[in-house]
Amino acid sequence: MTSTAPFIDAVTPVGWALLCGSLAAGVGTLALIWYLDRHRGAPGAAWFMATLGAQALWIFAYTGGLVVEAPFWRASAEAAMWVGIAWLGPLFLAFALAYTGRNSLVRSWGFPLVFAPAAVTAALAATHPFHSLLWQNFRPAAVFGLATVQYTLQPWGYVAAVVSLGTAGVGVLLLVETVVSYGPLYRNEAIAVALSTVAPAGAFVVWLSGVGPWPSLNLAAVLFLPHVLLDAYAFVGTHMFDTNPTTQRAAERSALRDLDDPLLVVDPEERVVNMNTQARELFAAAEIGLPFPVAPLVGTDLGTLRNGGEFVPGGRDEVYAVSTTQLTDPTGSEVGELFVFYDITTVRRQKQRLSVLNRILRHNLRNRLNVAQGRAELIESETTDPSIRTHTAAIRQANEKLLSIGERIRDFQNVMDRGRTISTVDPVALAERVATSVNEAYPDARIDLETDIDERQLNTDREIVGLVLRNLLDNAIVHSSQAAPAVELHVTDPIDQRVVYEIRDRNDRIPNMEIDTLDADEESALHHGQGIGLWIVTWCLEYVDGDIRFAYDDGNVVFVMLPRGEPASSSPD
């Protein structure tokens, strides 16, 4: 065995510096692998560790070869270096795709083809003593006392180098494009990742081209040292594996990037990784850096925020409805949540005011009207003066109309307060029940019920539909100018999956203003209806997915169309 002492004595200080720098790069690469093992489950982490493994093989194989003079072992070290070179680029591309939320591409059937050149190169390197497909004219060419070599690289060697450089370059572009797209959270890391590849890639290209004063010296190994330091900054010193761009990409796909309402993007570790300007204003977070835990920011835990449905900022007289959306990557894995805060302060105040007004209308006003009604009847019974009796009759009629409106509102409110209850209803039996009830209230009226229906089954809310029919029949009778009003009620099912109630009267046409107001969904000072009945009908039909149409044929014709709905478990009427 040849003594190594003469070789060691021949190494110059520059040579020792190169050796130490290369070893430091290799040790640093192994330290990164050890550190990142705790993030193995994070998107892309396993691929990045594999990339670092290929990088370590490249560095240690080349560095070991610098101190080996025996031809076989020196060639074996060079072959091992080429295995690391060939695998590094494709593995880095796989990492970049997985890390930036494009894991579906990595899992596609065609992606393994990216690794084919690396696999072929590994096979050729392992069998290098038996062929010259990787290199020819392998010979020593010492530089700075180190055992560097020169050889003529064969076409496949260039293929392996170009594939590795190309895939690594695409990976870098993906990382830079993705992280820069999501604001300052990843900007410094993106710069570090981009710069980390410049030195070793440049040195490798120079060595591959055979230019420079030392064509046999591949400085890529030692220049992996700044690469490792920049990677340590990007992946250890900051948040690139604590948080990842897949959460941001999923939020962007939700089309809420430009939402005017406050918005928080929360990762699976319950940290806010992005927020819009409105959210920073709402939570007084202008100076807060991201990522930031949810609870200290909003003043409550994530479960309460998610399940409560509403949020009241501390020290502010405001109420927000909270909407949550799960964020998933292309594989369907959950990568976070999107929280949107809608200001419902005005709506809540209006609801409170309407509740007070409704109570006054249903109780206070009704009681006062009953008093006025009783006094009018008393005056009418104690006087024989025709003029006074005419006035008291007008008062009674006005009171009765107001009381009727109050009763309709009360009935509507009672139905709404109970909530929608779907059951299986016989549409004909329901019509008969409503017609009988209305006839009892208006004994002088006549309601003719006709049916032409194949399937007597309707899955709906019987109370809401009953209220619709009762209001329409009431309207037809009250607005009739006949002493004995006549109304026709038809039950048909001419349209597939629909039941149609048709109400016909002999009254004057319903003013267009009444119908147009319903279509406009609101009233104005110059464009309003005269009563509450049609509004109640419209509101009720919204609850049961029904529709209403108006026509005129020697009287008003109102069509109420109801979907049959899904079968219910309860029995029919």
What does this protein look like?
Helix content is 54%, strand content 15%. By secondary structure, it is α+β, with helices and mostly antiparallel strands. It is built from 20 helices and 15 strands. It folds into four domains: 231 residues, Rhopdopsin 7-helix transmembrane proteins (Up-down Bundle), CATH 1.20.1070; 96 residues, PAS domain (Beta-Lactamase, 2-Layer Sandwich); 57 residues; 155 residues, Heat Shock Protein 90 (2-Layer Sandwich). The protein is elongated, with a radius of gyration of 41 Å. 34% of the residues are buried.
Quick description:
By secondary structure, the protein is of the alpha+beta class. It has helices spanning 5-10, 13-36, 45-65, 71-99, 103-106, 116-126, 155-181, 187-196, 198-209, 220-235, 245-253, 277-282, 294-298, 302-308, 345-382, 386-418, 427-441, 462-478, 512-520, 533-543; strands at residues 135-140, 149-153, 263-266, 271-275, 292-293, 310-311, 320-328, 334-343, 423-425, 446-452, 458-460, 486-492, 498-504, 547-552, 556-563. The longest helix is centred in the middle third of the chain and has 38 residues, at 345-382.
